Amino acid sequence: MKDLQKLLEEFSSCPGPPGGEEPVASLIRKHLKVQCQIQRDGLGSLIAVKQGSRKEPRIMLTAHMDEVGFMLQNITKDGYLRLQPLGGWIASHLPGQRLVVHGSKGSVEGIVAAIPPHFAKEHQSETKIEDLLLDVGAGSKEEVASLGLHLGDLITPVSHFAVYNKQFFANKAWDDRVGCAVLVAAMRRLKQHPNTAVAAATVQEEVGSRGAVTAVEVAKPQVAIVLEGPPADDLPGISKDSPQGALGKGCQIRLYDPSTIIHRRFWQWVAELAQAKKIAHQLAVRQSGATDARAIHLARGGIPTVVLGVPVRHAHSHSGLINVEDVKATLDLTLAILQKLDNKIRKSLMPK
Q: What whole-number distance in Å separates Cα of residue 126 and Cα of residue 130?
């Protein structure tokens, strides 16, 4: 439990927006360099291979390293910074929040400008990200430059790791650092398996699954497991029916989203395995969203792909919340798949 908590804290605290995933890749390399053969693709995704008792099937275990963030888009004459979003944000959640700019002279913290209620207009228009300003305490473009900040610098939320009520973990970037933590923990714990496990930590998922497009060509998988931190739907008012991604209810097995109809035989086999192993799980038919599965399942003539997730409350914001029991369930199910899935089972998943 303590090792898993430490891993989750380490990964969620690490900065790594799209295009700036190197600190996360370094962490993964540190944890897997002894157990695995590691290489990088041209876009920056990290691929770690662990040979089992058979060369085939090649099973790709993947999680994306990037978190939602921003890029410094422009600087006003008065020294405020404009933001280019990298990934999905709700603009109204940002005023008053702190962000850190990763500049050439080090990190510089700022506050997203917030209009006090004293000055708010009665019919103020809807908040738009292009209208937001980041205040780093500078009074001119020259002062901003003296801080080592320039166009193109990457920006991430300010947050910190905390434990709520013993089993809930709070921090930024659970989408998808929780997947990265499960990926690393699974590869480290994997002992006997009748296949070749290929862990792929991808870049730029939040801006269109770009890293998965290149990583799958290097990994050359025959089967794929995507590890995600999907948004939880157990807050009051989100779901009109029973939630399909509730905290504390186990690993979420995705059956559908608008980008991917999950391989039916594969997810059914995974669900049956979870039931047989008494691993807590929940099934989800998602009406929105996408994962790296959209690129992976279409590659190399078609790859049977399943998506496993640890639900994240308050996703794509400064601080999300996960339940450690869901992390454990996802890790247990991932290991069960890797330890059981051989060539005979893989062939049974293929169209006849």
A: 12
Residues 6+ apart with CB under 8 A from 319: 157, 159, 170, 171, 172
Q: What is the pLDDT of residues 302-340, one digit of tens each?
A: 999 999 999 999 999 999 999 999 999 999 999 999 999
143 is catalytic: no
Residue type, 87: G
Digit-coded pLDDT (tens) for 188-220: 999 999 999 999 999 999 999 999 999 999 999
Task: Choose the catalytic residue: 9, 21, 67, 205.
Answer: 205
Order the strands of the 162-164 sheet from edge to edge: 162-164, 168-171, 320-323
For the entire predicted model, the pTM comes to 0.96
The CATH number, out of the four listed (2.40.440.10, 3.40.50.300, 2.40.30.40, 2.40.40.10), of the domain defined by the range 70-157:
2.40.30.40
Is the CATH number 3.40.630.10 carried by domain 2-67+172-349? Answer: yes
Listed by start position, the domains of the chain span 2-67+172-349, 70-157
